[in-house]
Specification:
The protein has seven helices and four strands; from the N terminus they run E-H-E-H-H-E-H-H-E-H-H. The chain is of the alpha/beta class. A four-stranded parallel sheet has the order 3-2-1-4, sandwiched between helices. Helix 1 packs parallel to helix 3.
Length: 171
């Protein structure tokens, strides 16, 4: 096996935060739960100036996402791009979700590389701790070029029930 040549690039000074989202269930989860979570202390607000949030979706979801108050809340922190990925509209067969996710990731990688940005890929149903993205940005400044988070899966109904009870106690 031939060894590839390392690409020498300086550290990026900003990030592309990219979420691929399509389908009602994921749109609702993303807009209602995940965006507020991403806006928590030490997450999106902690990323450096010049960072962008990029939503990759189907044509049918562009207007809803662009006009949604949750996306407006992200816009208050950083610019937001709502972009379509051709494969999402072309390849709608069930069971191809990972192929579609890969098409989104390829688009995100190409766009971030061209812009000289570091890349943070988030799933539409990811929930993270406060200060998670601040830690990623700190590691990047220290010279790390990859940070991988464990993709723990939870039972959605149980998690949402516990979360709702938790929010009642903090209100």
């Amino acid at each position: 096996m031939a060894q590839g040549k390392a690409i020498e690039r300086p550290a990026s000074t900003n990030f592309h935060v990219v979420t691929h989202v399509w389908g009602r269930e994921y749109l609702d989860m993303f807009l209602r739960l995940c965006v507020p979570n991403q806006l928590a202390d030490g997450n999106l607000p902690s990323l450096p100036a010049g960072s962008r949030y990029r939503l990759l979706t189907r044509v049918e979801h562009v207007e809803e996402l662009a006009a949604h108050p949750a996306v407006a809340a992200i816009r208050a922190v950083m610019p937001v791009d709502v972009l379509t990925v051709e494969a999402l509209d072309r390849d709608r067969d069930q069971g191809r979700e990972y192929d579609l996710m890969n098409a989104c990731h390829r688009r995100a990688i190409d766009d971030a590389y061209e812009a000289g940005a570091a890349l943070i890929l988030l799933s539409a149903d990811v929930v993270m701790s406060a200060h998670a993205l601040a830690a990623v940005a700190r590691r990047h400044r220290e010279g790390y070029r990859a940070v991988v988070g464990a993709g723990l899966r939870l039972n959605k109904e149980s998690f949402l029930s516990v979360l709702a009870r938790s929010e009642e106690h903090t209100s």
